[in-house]
Design brief:
2 domains; six-stranded parallel beta sheet; five-stranded parallel beta sheet; 14 strands; 39% helix; 16% strand
């Protein structure tokens, strides 16, 4: 029987991986060489660094990460050792894109702005960024795109230089964390690039914390009181900067992709790869979709109000912000522990696709927008 070591915070890990082997669940930050020595497979999240220091002397033959990002994995080492690897690329793309628009919609309500009067700069146009761009266009926003690797590999004419995209009203980051090469993204947004943002700009980061120089961002926010930032990812997680938490408009503990569907997708993708690698049949299948939940919102107050009413009933981003803000203000010395605790105990959140919106009165324009965000609409 296979022995599988898995991060205890991976959704359904024991239920799913237990169909093909013995599963031992451990905290991701506590996984060490002794814990994995006699494991055949290791299933992690972004909190565990997987490299020679962890795996040397072990019998691990498969490593899976139930996450989109892979910067915590030394893939060169795995390849040298002949250790199979699988990630969950795209698993939580819908959840992250929905998080971004929960934030944008909240900020639009804060200011009384109209979607169609705003420009949206999308940096990184992969699985998440392409969804964000599509949503922005659907709302009438002027969408500016930057993705140098994709621009080089395609003939698309719509990619713009980074400096131009940084002039947008809202700038959102969806790039992997790369530490070398021409597409290096560590501190992609540094002091110089922050200087290109509009004084009242919104900066959103749901990619990796180190893509933005957090110290430079703190100074920039201090100097630009009309600017706002939305951060779900931070440098030095979980020991994040309490001062920066209190400076940003929306602060959350790396949970943008934490919808039930997103986490389940990640588990399922790694499970299927593990079954293929060890040539074992897939015994576990997701349960059939349950009936969607019904919510109500107005159809006669415009796209901004309708989307806010729908989204805030599904995902209360302000509640996530308030929990982290409170921890940073009241117990800054315990913020690292609180950060991990908030992730571990994160409440159930469902994708927009799990809800039916009842519009009253009916507006076909609003119904079309909500449908574009994957809500079912009863109009």
């Amino acid at each position: 029987m296979l022995k599988i070591i898995a991060d205890e915070n991976i959704l359904l890990a024991e239920q799913v991986f237990g169909t093909i082997g013995e599963v031992v669940l451990l905290p991701g930050r506590e996984l060490d060489r002794a814990a994995v020595r006699d494991a055949d497979a290791l299933i992690v999240r972004s909190t565990t660094r997987v490299d020679a220091e962890l795996l040397q002397g072990s019998r691990v033959r498969f490593v899976g990460t139930a996450t989109i990002g892979t910067d915590h994995i030394d893939r060169d080492y795995l390849q040298q050792r002949g250790i199979a690897f699988a990630d969950a690329a795209g698993s939580s793309a819908d959840a992250v894109a929905e998080y971004v628009f929960a934030a944008i919609t909240q900020l639009v309500i804060d200011t009384g702005a109209r979607f169609r009067d705003l420009s949206l700069g999308v940096i990184g146009v992969g699985a998440i960024g392409s969804r964000v761009a599509r949503y922005g266009r659907m709302l009438g926003m002027n969408v500016l795109l930057n993705d140098p690797p994709l621009a080089r590999s395609s003939a698309r004419p719509d990619f713009l230089p980074l400096d131009e995209v940084l002039t947008a009203d809202i700038v959102t980051l969806h790039v992997p964390l790369t530490r070398s090469g021409e597409d290096r993204t560590v501190h992609l947004i540094d002091e110089q690039k922050l200087g290109l943002l509009q004084p009242q700009a919104v900066l959103i980061n749901t990619s990796r914390g180190a893509v933005v120089d957090n110290q430079a961002l703190s100074r920039w926010l201090q100097a630009h009181p009309q600017a706002r930032a939305v951060l779900d990812v931070w440098e030095n997680e979980p020991a994040i900067d309490a001062r920066l938490v209190q400076q940003v408009r929306l602060a959350t503990p790396h949970i943008a992709g934490y919808s039930y569907e997103g986490k389940r997708n990640g588990t399922l993708m790694v499970y299927r790869a593990l079954c293929r690698e060890f040539a074992v049949p897939e015994h576990w299948q997701p349960e059939p979709a349950e009936e969607t939940h019904r919510i109500r919102c107005r159809g006669d107050a415009g796209a901004e109000i309708a989307l806010y009413e729908a989204v805030s009933q599904v995902y209360d981003i302000e509640a996530d912000n308030e929990r982290l803000q409170r921890a940073a203000g009241e117990n800054p010395h315990e913020l690292a522990q609180t950060f991990d605790h908030l992730r571990k105990t994160y409440p159930l959140r469902r994708d927009f696709s799990q809800y039916t919106v009842v519009l009253s009165p009916v507006s076909m324009e609003v119904a079309t927008i909500l449908s574009g965000f994957r809500f079912a609409v009863d109009a």
